[in-house]
Amino acid sequence: MTTALLSTAEELHARVRHGRRAVVMTMGALHEGHATLIRTARETAGPDGEVVVTVFVNPLQFGAGEDLDRYPRTLDADLKLAEQAGADAVFAPSVDEVYPGGEPQVRVSAGPMGERLEGASRPGHFDGMLTVVAKLLHLTRPDAALFGQKDAQQLALIRRMVRDLNFGVDIVAVPTVREEDGLALSSRNRYLSPDERRTALALSRALFAGRDRHAAQEALRARAREVPSTRARAEALSAIGESRAAADAHAVATAAPGGPAAVRAAARQVLDEAVRLDPPLRLDYLALVDPADFTEIGDDFTGEAVLAVAARVGTTRLIDNLPLTFGAAS
Fold first, then answer.
1. Where are the alpha helices (DSSP H) in 143-193?
2. pTM of the model
3. What stretches of the chain adopt beta strand conformation (E)?
4. According to the annotation, is 33 in a ligand binding site?
5. Which residues are catalytic?
6. Could you give the CA distance from residue 59 to residue 136 in angstroms, rounded to a whole number?
7. Does 271 count as an annotated binding residue?
8. Distance from the CA of 143 to the CA of which of 42, 45, 95, 243 falls in 20 to 30 A?
9. SS3 for 91?
10. Which positions are annotated as binding (R)-pantoate (predicted)?
11. Which helix (H) or strand (E) segment is 243 a member of?
12. What angle do CA 56, 66, 288 make, to 5 degrees?
């Protein structure tokens, strides 16, 4: 197939549509993570539908001192990757096309959730992100839009905007794509030197450590539930030589149901060690939050949660996260 390169909304609107249109929004510098989004969009749109990839480096979501000027712009390579992944069109508008009157005076506000974590580190970032997503949804008029789970807070805010402001579009989340060593794919990974990349692996290692601690706790809790807490329980366990193991499991389950504190501690231990590496990791935040509002969860929390981390290595800022399920919902 030949992927069309479009630069104006007029060109996009002139295309004859058959079936569903699925859109993947990007800032370019496409990699395998984006290719996964595009392939998933192809499945979402169906054989008679259309996949549109937007490539637009949005100035509104870059703060003072951030990397707007050096953000990689690789449109020829992006077009090739999009075509190979199954896109029908790449919509690469200019800044004047998206913001014809200059910076917009009316913008979308991300609200309280947009001031936490990434929002606290990058004031105004989510307002700029939501504003351009809203504009691109209007310009591309999709039935579905796909976003990666690596940007978990962004995904949560887009879902909230679409719900709160009654956008008629399905938001589809696609799992994070990782390189073989565990590093989450990002356009900013290309900025890392070999030594910086080795340090950057601490982000994913910390998340995996938290996940493994959580899995071990959940396994112990499940084991403790298998035998009733009665006199017969102790006798039965003693008979099969597992009284100590069961007692330990029961203690863990009783002392820290769900174990958010232990998950945080396991992840932080990895990050604390990375601070002493050369070059060092400079931690921005480690958080275990409710994806509904990105507030920290308590030890009695049950349900879906997100373990998220952000840090700088050299001049490069990286983020990563993993979804976890606590308590009765797991």
1. 152-164
2. 0.86
3. 4-6, 21-26, 50-55, 89-91, 144-148, 170-174, 281-289, 303-313, 316-326
4. yes
5. 34
6. 14
7. no
8. 95
9. strand
10. 61, 154
11. helix 243-255
12. 90
